[in-house]
Amino acid sequence: MKKNDSMLICITTLLLVTASVSATEAPPTTLPKATGAITIDALATEQAWQNAKWRSVDQLLIGENLSEQDFTGRYKLLWDKSALYMLFEVQDDVLADTHPDPLVNYWDDDCVEVFIDEDASGGDHQFNYNAFAYHVGLDRNVSDMGPSASSSESSIQTYNDHIQSQWLRSPETHIITWELKISVYDDSFLPGKKQKPVALKKDKKIGFMLAYCDADGQGTREHFIGSYPIQAVNGDKNLGYKTADVFEKMVLQ
Fold this sequence. Notes:
Elements (H helix, E strand, L loop, with lengths): L2 H22 L4 E3 L15 H5 L3 E2 L2 E4 L8 E10 L2 E10 L18 E7 L14 E6 L4 E6 L6 E5 L4 E7 L5 E8 L22 E10 L8 E4 L21 E5 L1
Parallel strand pairs: 1-14
Antiparallel strand pairs: 2-4, 3-13, 4-5, 5-11, 6-7, 6-12, 7-8, 8-9, 10-11, 12-13, 12-14
């Protein structure tokens, strides 16, 4: 091999490695702070919402042939020292809530799913509190899985004090507006234990992803749509409830 050829191969390899690192270590998204108090009423009248930018919810994670008539979504996200605040606009042609018990098949109803990794550390969280995958139902119950106060075994529970929510549907446009206040807890959380949410501050990094379970009244979830692209593993993109590695990294500004 000629010296020039060897040097060219080395340079090409370095460029490929650099590109790979850049792709996997993209800079975190900046998340602006709320300017003023936000009331959770699904009206979005605060000036803070007017200044915030919309972000799409358009990554199909489960299902096929999703039409704009069936679902479209976009959201805004803000923070202050006490919580995250989310405004979520959804166009959904059918609202379904066929599982009234929040501890039974809650993912098979129309619901908002909020993924939070308090310290952006990534990793497994399916059966622990390394991160959370909150399902917020139309009845505003908040469901997830994790250890209980009496057992280290994971079980389905409600976490209604973690997320305050309200939603309204426009009679003219049929657009559903969700407004949520999301308290952020770290991995030391345990139900029944007196524990305050983490105080948020500038430059703090978190992991975040938003998704929507779209059920059309047949008793199952037809589509699952997320806010952040996920690379399939063995054809499966529904990975957020298992690992926080697929969450988007954000930094509070």
